[in-house]
């Protein structure tokens, strides 16, 4: 009996060594943690339960039958994050470069199936050379099996990808279908075709970092939602994110203890809006002053900064925030900001996360590059996402809400539950100057008359009361009481029930 127990321990120790000490040292030498070290940091101490530690590949080509490391390049299992269950897979670069074989894929599929069945998030840590070259089509099939599960899990359980090494070729499409992608600066990259192929096909010379590093994907492509300095920071931030999310689409997000009165008054907000309507101010100040303990988890912080997306808590409950940022492009909507916010709104709606929308938007960005790039369809994504969302929706217009952008930004007409405006709100088809130049074109040569017309237009429309008279704004609120008003609004909506008509699925303008 004792021998058997010892054998188990020996086998386990051997499996834990992955591709061997030399390769583990090489992994550390690159500033990367091993697959198991990453899991240890991700989940609560001692909570990880591993599956399939002894699985090995079945390939007999290219001498592979003589190298059968236990675990086959991926560590899979489940554990808890602050006591809440998550499923995890972590690719082991020390074993055949973390490449994906048929059995490696089966291990991932097994935990994804369990995650869907048991209603818990899947967190995938990617560090892989891609398809196991020795296995050929068996590996490609394995990828497709994972893809199919990503699709089935979408909207059922949150899926989070952390890229901590190479992720190239078709392998990128599994993370691409998950809800959030995080990358580690300098040690991770993602691309469909690498620098060598790019050079051959397009003659462009580009480094792996430039082509698909963390900076590229968080600032230019928007493929990734956040970039972190190292493995440790990335995993700590994933834990923080998971705390905001429900385990699955049948559950509400967790309610955390809070130490911040929902009644808190912020008198400084009464002077947040500058006197000059064209002077910017920082919308993040409003977000952090409304949030419990000022805690804001921003998503896609470095991309399309004219719109801000992220999570806060109000009375301990998760709320998704979408806010125009007047500091960047005057907070206008454009292709990038519409796409960014639309995806965020859809994620929130999938997982029953109420949405707070803070509006200061002068309209859509004009120009050929926007029109040629399809701003019509991209803007429609955000409009569609808001309109289909059935979660509680509370909107506060702080300053401008002009034109179509007024409609889009969770207006009353898109089933906004509470639509508040600050007294500084201006709700109109466009700014006074533009409006005057159109409706009083005949007077354009007469500066005095134009000034008078502009003043008249401002007096009539540069306020929230025309909309409030029609009931499009439920209440004009004092800026200082925004946290209290918004918290009470969401509290009143906790039992909201709203269903869209049955359909197979919608046809959002992709
Ligand atoms: C099998 C692989 C492998 C792979 C790496 N290794 N990639 N084994 N299949 N895809 C092995 C190496 O042989 C080596 O084994 C070990 O992993 C570490 O690799 P190195 O090359 O020494 O590491 P490094 O210099 O850091 O380079 C990492 C790398 C490079 C950039 C990922 O290994 C690489 O380019 N690999 C091939 C990538 C690739 O072409 N993959 C297929 C892409 S197509 P030893 O024994 O020496 O430690 C694809 C399609 C997916 O993935 C389609 C889905 C639909």
TrEMBL record:
GO terms for molecular function: acetyl-CoA carboxylase activity; propionyl-CoA carboxylase activity. The lineage of its organism: Bacteria, Pseudomonadati, Pseudomonadota, Alphaproteobacteria, Rhodobacterales. GO terms for cellular component: acetyl-CoA carboxylase complex. Gene3D superfamilies: 2-enoyl-CoA Hydratase, Chain A, domain 1 (3.90.226.10). GO terms for biological process: carbon fixation; fatty acid biosynthetic process. Belongs to the AccD/PCCB family. Pfam families: Carboxyl_trans (PF01039). InterPro entries: AccD/PCCB (IPR051047), AcCoA_carboxyl_beta (IPR034733), Acetyl_CoA_COase_Trfase_b_su (IPR000438), ClpP/crotonase-like_dom_sf (IPR029045), COA_CT_C (IPR011763), COA_CT_N (IPR011762). Keywords: Ligase. Residues 1-257 form the CoA carboxyltransferase N-terminal domain. Residues 264-504 form the CoA carboxyltransferase C-terminal domain. This is Propionyl-CoA carboxylase beta chain.
